[in-house]
């Protein structure tokens, strides 16, 4: 029989997880890094539970940091990939291309909306809750009236399903990345 602590750990393990991995690429090695990235991304996609990988390339030559966003369906599957011999071989190939060891942050839940490079911990929960609440309210206030004429003939539950699905996509890919950068000073105050 499981005790309550074990139940919590199992529940936590069964939720989607995102790993944010940063690499500082040596000057002049960018093309080699991008080729390496495509290779390791293909290898990762073969692992059970893989849900996608993307990279954010540096915006200028003064900050040569690549940010890799790796998603798995649960922590156990991410851990299997991170500790695999296949990944270990790819990381060995990476060493001549980077200036320092990679940095890996693992996030679940709302934390992924607030992930920024060079931030080791998520913002306080109350700040995440406030920003999320304001973002959800704003997007629903705009999207609902726009969709209402298109969805009038559908049952209310289906209307809600479509509306919330569109709201989540807009929040995930447009609004939250922008708000996180905009409110960085408040979310992550300098100590």
TrEMBL record:
Coiled coil: none annotated. It comes from the Bacteria. Keywords: Membrane, Monooxygenase, Oxidoreductase, Transmembrane, Transmembrane helix. One of its GO terms (molecular function) is monooxygenase activity. The chain crosses the membrane at residues 130-151, 157-176. SUPFAM superfamilies: Dimeric alpha+beta barrel (SSF54909). InterPro entries: ABM_predict, Dimeric_a/b-barrel. It comes from Pseudanabaena frigida. This is Antibiotic biosynthesis monooxygenase.
